[in-house]
Design a protein that fits this description.
4 copies of one chain form a homotetramer. The first copy, chain A, is an alpha/beta fold. Chain A has one domain: Rossmann fold, CATH 3.40.50. In chain A, about 40% of the residues lie in helices and about 20% in strands. The first copy, chain A, is built from 6 helices and 7 strands; from the N terminus they run βαβαββαβαβαβα. Chain A has a 7-stranded parallel sheet with strand order 4-3-2-1-5-6-7, with helices on both faces. In chain A, helix 1 links the parallel strand 1 and strand 2. In chain A, helix 1 packs parallel to helix 2. Chains in contact: A-B, A-C, A-D, B-C, B-D, C-D. Chains B and D meet through loops of B and loops of D.
């Protein structure tokens, strides 16, 4: 039976310290729950922090990289998938995740949330500007939740996986 | 010298009559300006309307289709590019457009605006919910404009192409 | 009604003078027949020669580029499609062509012939090493022809388009 | 440090019993060596057999699927990457593999060998028609080996990984 894969998406170089702390805690909690962590795999921002959190908890990490050579890869990625697709790989990030957790918002993250909503992948929003929440809610036709804490995000994931 | 390609993106089946009228007028104006129209190529919504407008003005239309067989193609697409990539093709839509005009907003359109901002392609927003405008402005690091009319959009495109 | 798109694929920098002459003549003949020429769009080898031939005959040329910025583009491409996908764009080259003409053989061309055979797109082989012809024939389940001259290739395309 | 990922590619529904036995033994040997097995992930042919072999040895399996929903997935895939890209995902298969082992030859496999040669990924050919071997050799500019047994393939992989 396939592993459960939970995606964590968020800003790269422009991630704030708070977003990175949340991403680390998310990665740690996802790995502690026995799930595989999937990110965009790069060695910056939310991707890097989430992968490091998951590795600190002894988890397994998958990184879907834009490059074709992996030079942009986080050292905390166990399984680097080298797509060579640039940002078109964002579609793979969300399709391959049973739940997508967005932690913060950059243009790349926004494209991933939008693609997830289009593909009806369940989405959890964290550390999101208030105006953004209303926008994503207006575009959602599938499951979409807002979580104020990592614990609340985990509870939501467990609930969706159980149903 | 390569043709100038202007992309028009917007909702498919959920497009409103007003969005489709605007898209038709945009397509007509783009073709009348001697530019090539690029859309997602499907036979619904803003894609269909923009292509029909461009053909009414005797223009050339390119459709970047998600399917691998073109059965989803608008009859007003002259050059169907069959990608077989599903929504990952949205990245191609924006990369191939010298200016991206978003006319209305669905989840697919949101992914295209986000990818365009990430790739620093110039974006014009039309028929956009007020909350959405503020969000895209907060994510933009490159050229982004709001146009209330097709004439204003055309003027903005001409200004960007001249610079 | 969509234009008829004929793809010409072949080696880039390693193309021989004979292959480039054939590619030029193919591009010229395709454009003279009123069809659109599609290539991988780069400014080298068979892609470049075919596009120049088509332009010499007043035709329309589409280039499906691996880059996301078009700096690799042939000056004879009218409609550059910037995919940003690297060699994954080879799948688009064959899906978007109603007939694929392979002129010579490099590794990229080989991937395109293979993908065309998989997708059952009609393929014409030109300037192909004898061993290669037998291999492609053994893998084909759809239309596959060998042409010794551009005239023979054109006749084969017309025959397939008529059926 | 990232895991070592070895790709096994080969025919799907048209795989012969011998090819499937070899693929199973390859998967078993790869997993026994502590490497991750990567395949195209589908529930047929060489992909299925290699994954089952790897799981029998307690290994970890990654499947890069053409679909966007995973309904085509082998039950022996631990980590299904849902690309939604169709055969364009073949490029990802080879880019993500440190060594590509081709076991048998269908059109999809041929595209993967060709893309691997283009990207200079090391390739091992097994169960290959004689004419095909000569062709791939003529197209290779990077590492390419022929292996008559799984043991010989393993030795070649170890040698390349050590260098």
């Amino acid at each position: 039976m396939a592993y459960i894969i939970i995606g964590v998406m968020g800003p790269g170089i422009s991630a704030t310290p708070t977003q990175m702390e949340t991403a680390y805690a998310l990665g740690y909690a996802i790995a502690s729950s026995g799930w595989v962590l999937l990110t965009g795999g790069r060695q910056v921002g939310v991707m890097e922090a989430a992968c490091q959190g998951a590795k600190a908890a002894g988890g397994l990490t998958v990184g879907i990289l834009p490059s074709n050579d992996g030079t942009d890869r986080s050292a905390a990625v166990d399984i680097p998938i080298l797509t060579g697709l640039g940002d078109a790989r964002n579609a793979i990030n969300v399709l391959s995740s049973q739940v997508v957790v967005a932690c913060g918002l950059g243009p790349g993250t926004a494209s991933e949330i939008a693609l997830a909503l289009k593909a009806q992948r369940p989405v959890i929003l964290m550390a999101m500007p208030p105006g953004a929440i209303a926008l994503w809610q207006s575009l959602a036709t599938g499951p979409l939740a807002i979580a104020g804490t990592v614990a609340a995000a985990l509870e939501q994931i467990q609930q969706w996986l159980a149903s």
